[in-house]
Amino acid sequence: MQTTLGSCLLEVNRMPKVNTADKVMDILEAIASQGQGAGTRELSRKLEMNVATVHNIARTLQSRGFLRQDPRTKRFEIGSRLMLMSRHSQYLNALYVAGKMVVEKVASEIDESIMLVALDHGHVVNLQYIPGSGALRVAEPDDVTEVAHCTASGKLMLAQMSRDELVRYLDRYKLKSHTPRTITRRQDLVTELNQIREKGFSLSCDELCDGVSALAVPILDPWDKVVAAIGAGVPSVRLAQSGYRRKVLEALRRSAEQIGRNIA
Fold this sequence. Notes:
Low-confidence stretches: 1-17
Structural class: alpha+beta
Shape: elongated
CATH topology of the largest domain: Beta-Lactamase
Largest sheet: 5 strands, antiparallel
CATH architecture of the largest domain: 2-Layer Sandwich
Number of helices: 10
Number of strands: 9
Order of helices and strands: EEHHHEEHHEEHHHEEEHH
Helix content: 40-55%
Distance between the termini: 49 Å
Mean pLDDT: 85
Number of domains: 2
């Protein structure tokens, strides 16, 4: 097709196909359409593509985190990096699966209330919660968005938001006071979130409930992006004991590292 603009004759063509890019997209779409993933030869037959080509592309996508390969079946599945970038509906479930046994283990180890928290389209959601066995338990709702500003796990996830995301959050959810120590001023919260990013952990002391404190640490994916937080709710009097904060933080960090490895 040709068109004239002033004295210039322009040739308007369809965008040429980029064969390698087309093959990459075909493979991703084929795997995404299969609930249980797909093997190399299956993809080769379905896409009428050379087996070696499929294998090489799939391996490259796997190395970048866009695909993962089941070690038992050898079938390729959508990887965590692609899930995260697209906010794939299965990603939260993948985080839950990666963290379930670890959360149960650390809850048993330190005998405190443990929660696994992630961001989901601007919401701070509780993927898993195991209460401690003591008389004082920290109750956690499934959606902790409205109280994120006064919980350790919630603040850690707020610290991962972009500036625009945080502004939208603050516009929608007012910084409601729950105790005299709740952060209720925007600038104070922004300062706190900056400190959390610098320190690498989050702390709340009597901010949601009097007598209840919490610690939380980030969970990183293989590309060092924070994808979730694991936190412990602890009676404030116990957290004030010498060395106890360090003990809880060390247990949480070990757990976060294990969950990160499970995600990979």
